[in-house]
Fold this sequence. Notes:
- The structure is a single chain.
- By secondary structure, the protein is an alpha+beta fold.
- It folds into two domains: 5-188, no CATH class; 195-332, Alpha-Beta Plaits.
- The protein has ten helices and 15 strands.
- The chain has a five-stranded mixed sheet. Strands 3-5-4-2-6 form a five-stranded mixed sheet, with helices on both faces. The chain has a five-stranded antiparallel sheet with strand order 12-13-11-14-15, covered by helices on one side.
- The protein is elongated.
- The chain starts with a strand and ends with a helix.
Amino acid sequence: MFSIIRRGPKSLIIESKNIDKLKEYFVNELKAIKEASLTTAFQEAGEEYTIIFLVEKVKEVVKCSECIDTLIIKEDPDIILCKVLNNKIKEDITFSRIAPRIIFMRIFGDIDKILVKVKEDYKAVEGNIIDLLDNYNDKGTILAFTEKPLNKIMYLEDIHEKSLFIEEKYSDIFKKLRIHALKYLNAGLDNRDWYEIEIKIYDRYGAYKLHYERLLKILEGLELGFILGESWTKDYPRLFMAVGVYRVRFFTFYNPKYIKKILVGSEFLEDGMRIVDYDLYYNRKKINWTDIVEDNLRSKNLLGEKYRKEIFSKLEEKEINEILNLECEIIKTRD
């Protein structure tokens, strides 16, 4: 639900005396896409892609300006190389090597404190990610930082201007970061406490499963934190009146009032219809919608409309469609 580290695209540097023929093979047989530059390739290639740099001569460090063509293929390097080895095109390849892998880390707060903490554990060179790729492409790993959710497309402008080159094996570093990433994240937050909150879901039509799935899609899409547990419980809106509610325990570094804004935006449909009640508790105290009112928005409906738009503006198209489909199913339960 909340990712702190993520793999970046893989890279292959391939030397050839017949680059046009090799490029044609990759495009026709492996559905490669030609990119204008490293920047555009980097923005189009997710972690399941491999960026291929075609050069006439591989040197210890290959500059981006020396690449004749840059391609991206939605495949791992080992699969690509196996297919090449089983094809006559291998005769047109004179040399190849893996370029440094990239690891993305989600950060908040003071980036310099995070960099200091990472440098305590690794011998690292600091620099812009493109400059690091241009000057250290023969070995090692590049650690890049972003404040954006890691389940989204990573654009170059989303990456912090400071990245780190670490001269260690990618697999070793990734394994260590999975264990210690939270330590670095907390360093940027000055080790302040996270918030453990409780969300109670109530729907008089009883479509709890659909509401839970919809809420989960939103929390996951925005990468707001971790679900610690869930259970059925009872609430008492009036004296001696008990109603069943579904309770979700949630762990987040966002202020509970920000989470309340997300919940208010999630209670309403696009046409303003309210389909669910999400109550939020922090330290056993209920946070009401009146705690998040704005000067020009003093009704829950208007707040819900605003926050719903903000939520959807941060989600991918696939996530939005999944949420809209769930909303259609919820509406059916009203019939």
